[in-house]
Write a structure and sequence with these properties.
Strand order of the largest sheet: 1-2-3-4-5-6-8-7
Helix content: 25-40%
Shape: globular
CATH superfamily: Gcn5-related N-acetyltransferase (GNAT)
Order of helices and strands: EEHHHEEEHEHEEH
Structural class: alpha+beta
CATH class: Alpha Beta
Mean pLDDT: 93
Largest sheet: 8 strands, mixed
CATH architecture: 3-Layer(aba) Sandwich
Strand content: 35-45%
Length: 180
Amino acid sequence: MIRGRAVTLRPVEERDHPLIHQWQNQPEVWWWMDYERPFSLQDIAESEERSRAEGHPFIIEAEGRPVGKIGLNQFRRRDRICSLYIYIGEPGAWGKGYGKDAIMTMLSYAFDRLDLHMVELWSLAPNERALRAYRACGFAVDATLRERSFKDGGFVDRVIMSVTREEFDRTRLQRNDSQV
């Protein structure tokens, strides 16, 4: 378990699969995560097995209950870089800062425990709420990939972002100073 300010990150367990299935088939999560098709429970089980083999998947808990999922994957060991993914699957938990706290907690884990140099991610460009949260956690825009996803009859850009250990340390220090 990894504790943040308001969230706890714990490894995904098999008992979480039905909840992950529900979250990933939730329309808003589906749209923003850019999934291509609905998921079966078997899809979730196979995906979670791959996630454990290739990365570090966690359930985000807040107020004693699961609210979303976060993880690190796509490790490039030589470069000490990986990718981050996150979603808050419980609509009642949206807008409460759990995502930002989970990201800060996961980045602390990535840089302090895994000794990474950089963490990267992508987001759909219209997801302004997510982009604001990523920036608040120290991420900077690396590129905009034009028209990379076909959504609701039109193409949508993807934004690629990253944060280095040094950038995160500055963000973490500023955040700690603002909490005093």
